[in-house]
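Quick one:
INPUT:
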């Protein structure tokens, strides 16, 4: 099965597949770390050059990759995406899989969940000083609050 070229394409198609078959579709992730192989440069028998190449190869950190697969066994549809970019891996895991989970749970996308009616109310802070109130009002208005500087003694 071919891989998608962009994560957005994979995400859009996965959402459609999950919306069509939420009970049978599965999402799997596979993360692997592989040692970077160095390509030896052909030199004219210079032993010092080969030693530095070996040291440079050993200094390279291993490279990780993630493969995300959306699979529906009933229809036989498989959607795959692979990347080695660390920033994209975290974005895929936190935001994309969350969006797919919402679709799988039949929750509307982009809607904020309402608080539970049985939940206790949020605690109110007991701070009632004038400085705290001014600071809150100043930050709400977009301005900065100026304070007096303390002098040295």
């Amino acid at each position: 099965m071919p891989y998608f070229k962009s994560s957005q394409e994979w995400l859009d198609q996965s959402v459609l597949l999950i919306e069509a078959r939420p009970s049978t579709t599965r999402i799997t992730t596979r993360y692997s770390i592989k040692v970077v192989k160095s390509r030896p440069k052909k030199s004219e028998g210079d032993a010092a050059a080969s030693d530095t190449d070996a040291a440079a190869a050993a200094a390279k950190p291993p490279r990780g990759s993630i493969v995300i697969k959306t699979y529906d066994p009933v229809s036989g549809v498989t959607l795959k995406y692979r990347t080695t970019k660390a920033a994209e891996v975290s974005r895929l895991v936190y935001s994309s899989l969350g969006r797919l989970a919402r679709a799988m749970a039949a929750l509307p996308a982009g809607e904020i969940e309402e608080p539970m009616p049985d939940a206790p109310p949020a605690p109110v802070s007991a701070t009632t000083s004038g400085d705290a109130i001014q600071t809150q009002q100043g930050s709400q208005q977009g301005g900065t609050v100026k304070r007096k500087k303390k002098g040295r003694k």
